[in-house]
Amino acid sequence: MDEGDDPYRWLEELDAEPAAGWVRERNAATVAALTGDDAFAAMQAEIRQVLDADDRIPYPGWRGDGYYYDYWRDAAHPRGLWRRTTLAEYRRPEPAWDVLLDLDALAAAEDENWVWDGVTVLRPGHRRCLVSLSRGGKDAVVVREYDLDTRAFVPDGFTLAEAKSDVTWIDVDRIYVGTDLGPGSLTVSGYPRVIRRWRRGTPVSEAEIVYEGQADDVSAYASHDPTPGYERDFVGRSLDFYRTRNFLLTPDGGQVPVPVPEDAQWDVHREWLLVRLRTPWEVAGVTHPAGALLVTRFDDFVAGEGDLTVLFEPDERTALSYHVWTRHHLILATLVDVHRRLEVLTPDGVSGWRRTPLAGVPEGDEPWIVDTDPDLGDDYLIASTGYLRPASLRLGRVGGPVETLKREPAFFDATGLTVRQFFATSADGTRVPYSVVGDPTAAAGPTLLTGYGGFEVSLTPHYDGVLGRGWLARGGTYVVANIRGGGEYGPRWHRAALRENRPRAYEDFAAVAADLAARGITTAPQLGIEGGSNGGLLMGAVLTRYPTLVGAVVANVPLLDMRRYHLLLAGASWTAEYGDPDDPADWAFLRGYSPYHNVRPGVTYPPVLFVTSTRDDRVHPGHARKMAALLSAHGQDVSYYENVEGGHGAASNNEQRAFLSALTLRFLWQRLGGGDAGS
């Protein structure tokens, strides 16, 4: 299709009747073809049991007051409960929870389709919080102040109408706020451009402006650090998805630049400034490589003094995944060929920073830090899991004991299944790791391959009871491809598929698909692929570039029209990742892989299922609608389902998640020749 000719532009009209009618017809056809029998109902019920299981781990969060906070959904509470308990209670098999907010009761009382979107608790004090509520799962939220003592919303408290707002507490009577206050208040990406200091009891429109970004920025922000003795305020503007200009806000309103590279990630903990580099940085004649983590004393460095100490440098196999602080220590999570390792770094005035392994990680497990509480001390919550190992949650203290708090149940029988890692060779010779989960003795059979390949996001092992029941336990093989564009090997892995290099990610994925067939794990007609969002773009690119490599495709909330993505919803915020279609040089390479512009007459494409949401206000459902219409016009096998709510996750409760999971698995089993395995 020529970029100047878009016969399906009308499908971008979100709720216009012609488009809505098209969606209803497509939904009805897909539901009729894939659901309605006893086998589908049984699979959906099995999946729902996993999602609603009472013995799941209630992963808690700490907020500086000693309580264990949790947001919980189950069959009796589909919208969820925000609740908390004590450590003593949490240790019990069935803790007594103090329910802070019942979202099902709230939605019923207010006749609103509320979906929980998080909370910001005031520190110190912990009495007041700002609750974010989404209608139907959208990114745009309503913000309302809540009193944790009275269990009620605060009359005449801080309240914001629906918008993609940014709010941060300063003290009990003031917050920083960026929100939609009419023309000029938002960037072209739809995020706050103007940051205000809002005092209780006054109109937000009259609040003092403390910082302004520019219209073509992604967003502006303000933050407040309430740590006693280290209180600081920061403001800044995100120039694009990766570059931010940051300032320390002085009491008189002055702005002191934070002297770090615009594309670096950084944070401040008490006296320390951490800088994580995306590109090389030369300081005092020393060039630090991309992917390095550096530390210095914040006040000295802002004043033009202070030395940088290297805490981590990457190598060919190892990258920094993330870091978290406790009160006195720094925990580093690294990836070694996509396997995570944890260690503790402790500042030592004599010898620099001491390093020790973090306790509480069983041999062979994939660990992650669930939470720390730097306000209170050096405790940490650590979970460990694997593709075939249900998670365990432990409580540890740096230098102290570790105890097991909870264990996840096994949701499927993993007997005879293994996890193997292989490396495929991409078109340019790059070795691309991927993990295979399944029966190593089985003949070639139905295989599900997934990937993402963007925004420096890493895909790491985790236990998935839904996938286990619906795919692995029925004889399927599951594969995760760690392609370029992700963060599995740090910034270099990401930059290798950035902008004009995006096709490297698709070549990597194709190399994994071919390697699976070469190893006898599957065949092209038995290989299904699935991905969402940027991973949905990956699905569309593989569909149009490598149609003979796969037997079925599932694209969830996908980007597909790379000519107009930057004009739809939040798309303008991603031009640093993909390129700017309005720049002829950028459009030249975007045109080369844009799935919507590379559907060819006379080519037989594998069957495809598109899943999206009318209420996705991040990736416009028009992408999936138009691609489905175009492929259908070419006589291809296209299934389409658009949930009326759910936002970018495509589902807003466990009932919808179970339905969409069962729909996807039924489609894959049918198209890949699984026969009764999908029953």
Would you kindly provide a written description of the structure presented here, covering whatever features stand out?
- This protein is an alpha+beta fold.
- The protein is built from 13 helices and 38 strands.
- It has an eight-stranded mixed β-sheet, sandwiched between helices. Strands 4, 5, 6, 7 and 8 form a five-stranded antiparallel β-sheet that branches. The chain has a four-stranded antiparallel β-sheet with strand order 9-10-11-12, with no helix packed on it.
- Strand 23 and strand 24 form a beta hairpin.
- The protein is globular.
- 45% of the residues are buried.
- This is S9 family peptidase.
- Keywords: Hydrolase, Protease, Serine protease.
- It comes from Micromonospora humida.
Topology at a glance:
Blueprint: H1 17-34, H2 38-52, E1 68-74, E2 77-85, H3 87-90, E3 98-102, H4 103-110, E4 114-121, E5 128-135, E6 141-147, E7 152-153, E8 159-163, E9 166-171, E10 174-178, E11 194-199, E12 208-212, E13 219-225, E14 232-238, E15 244-249, E16 255-257, E17 265-269, E18 272-276, E19 281-283, E20 286-288, E21 293-297, H5 298-302, E22 309-312, E23 318-325, E24 330-336, E25 339-348, E26 352-357, E27 366-372, E28 379-385, E29 392-397, E30 402-407, E31 418-425, E32 431-438, E33 447-450, H6 465-470, E34 477-481, H7 491-495, H8 503-518, E35 527-532, H9 534-545, E36 552-556, H10 575-578, H11 584-593, E37 608-613, H12 622-633, E38 638-643, H13 654-671
Parallel strand pairs: 33-34, 33-35, 35-36, 36-37, 37-38
Antiparallel strand pairs: 1-2, 2-3, 4-5, 5-6, 6-7, 6-8, 9-10, 10-11, 11-12, 13-14, 14-15, 15-16, 17-18, 18-21, 19-20, 21-22, 23-24, 24-25, 25-26, 27-28, 28-29, 29-30, 31-32, 32-34
Helix pairs in contact: 2-13
Protein name: S9 family peptidase
Domain Peptidase S9A N-terminal: 5-221
InterPro entries: AB_hydrolase_fold, Pept_S9A_N, Peptidase_S9_cat, Peptidase_S9A, Prolyl_oligopep/macrocyclase
